Amino acid sequence: MKKKHCFITWILTGCLILGGLTGCSNDKQTSTDRSGNSPQSTQAAESMTGHNENENSNLGAWGRAMGAVLISINDGNPYYFGGYEATDANKKAARNILKSSWNISSRKDLLKQIRFLQNTGSRKDYRREAKDLKALSARERKKALNQVSGALKTHYNNLQYISDTWGKKGLLAWDLCRISHLAQWGYIADYINLDEAQAVLEPSASRLRKRFDNWDDIVNNWLDGYAYSSAIEIRSIEKTDYTSRQEIYQKLLSEQKDTDPLFDNKLFEEDIIPLGTVSYDSLMEEIKTTPKAKKKQNKASEKKMSQGKDSEEKTQ
């Protein structure tokens, strides 16, 4: 009863202030127009043939598919890991984007944000809200939702839809695919090298492979997470950034070649192949803290990680 009362109170008092905040957290997810910060080597990247990732591993193929829609939104080449050439101009642009949208200004910041998405991400708030929502009876839920409108109502409609559709898997691909966005931008920004950018994807790719059966499910989970975090109605009949992203995915699917598919479902039948030269664990060793320091830094670190607008911005 206490949890039910808490949830209804949140709705009636408007604790979940949207249009910048998701739930009662500081996780900002927005979609804005391009600001001119995007790398400028799109034409050069598109003219390249073949792949630039490590051929001894399939992590590059996983990473390209995980980040393909967002790379395409920014006129990058989704078949080329990173989307753009690693030029000085693109390095500067990528660093500006990571700083403005994620509060990332160093290699350490990048690795910490990747670890946050891997271990926590937006899933923590979603699961808490979904649990409270499930504790309500249908009558209580209807009564509570009748008290709200606008972005707040959209948020709870999305929460209900995602909870019914995905259950505990809700927002999983949303968090894990953003690791690919950060890995690719981090590579262009020269915070990590090409092998390292693929290595940080190993646990996220492995988790996606185990929890989903195909790329349709992964992309749909990512899209629903985007809608949840951006207060965009999932079931809206109007054209939105959500429907635009759906269309981009369908376009990429229709244009991919059988001999070189971008969204290759055969990846789900194969084991994840590590690089052998560097690993996720070895990279995370760089940002390990002592138990005492960890306890002190946990709250401050998590707060900082959740404040980024994240790579769902078109400027990324």
From TrEMBL:
Q: Where is the composition biased (Basic and acidic residues)?
A: 299-316
Q: Which residues form the DUF1266 domain?
A: 98-257
The region called Disordered is annotated at 28-56, 289-316
Query: Known Pfam families for this protein?
Result: DUF1266
Entries under InterPro entries matching the protein: DUF1266
Q: Which domain of life is it from?
A: Bacteria
Protein name in UniProt: DUF1266 domain-containing protein
Organism from which the protein derives: Jutongia huaianensis
